[in-house]
Amino acid sequence: MSILSRTTLGSGPELVLVHGWGLHGGVWAGLVPVLATRFHVTVVDLPGHGLSAGVRTRDIDACADALAAVVPGAATWLGWSLGATVLLHMSWRHRQKVERLVLVGATPRFVRAPDWPWGMESEMLDAFASDLKVSYRATLQRFLSLQLGLDEDARALVRQMRVELFRYGEPDPAGLDAGLAILRTTDLRMLLPRIQVPCQVIHGAHDRLVPPAAARSLASGLGASCHILSSAGHAPFLSHPEEFRAALGTFLND
Fold this sequence. Notes:
Layout: E1 6-9, E2 14-18, H1 32-35, E3 40-44, H2 60-68, E4 75-80, H3 82-93, E5 98-104, H4 122-148, H5 152-165, H6 173-185, E6 199-204, H7 212-222, E7 225-229, H8 236-239, H9 241-252
Parallel strand pairs: 2-3, 2-4, 4-5, 5-6, 6-7
Antiparallel strand pairs: 1-3
Helix pairs in contact: 2-3, 4-5, 4-6
């Protein structure tokens, strides 16, 4: 089984953080020191991303299996966007590894369908896949702008994240393409009633990639609490860290 890169900090109950598409575990840098005062925090890089750039996985099953091997026992898992999608699948496939689940910027299905109006057009993901072959630097930077918004504070955060994006070198284009394939093809709606762990959904009201209605539907399917942060977008832990920590703390303290 492929071994994913991970870093750890703190002591206490196990808590694992899983980032989204195109980025790496460094995206959690502002959150980890706070969580590490109460938890043994593991930050993992997904296959094809960050320091796991050389790790290849075939599909969402293999990606979930690689994540499940990150910690020896059960843990609380926090996943964002693509990371949340893989964790949802892992929570069904490796139930014994999951005590609780926090899902950020998450949806059971990223692509729109006749019975799912809260997804993006498949052509948008196809365009990202095509653009990756031309210039993945420009493609990833455009994706950052979609996630963080266009106001002045967001533009400053995008500039900061552009530096963070390539901190560990250039990501593996094949790994990025595999992540897009997971986003394009995965539909977890029928799986949700079978995920029997305590869950929390945290979402931004101004998410430009995943409409808040998708998050509400996800929370309903899981029987989970749902916190919609009124001013945030797709990455609320970056744009609104204090509000995000307050919402997260409500669940983790329970």
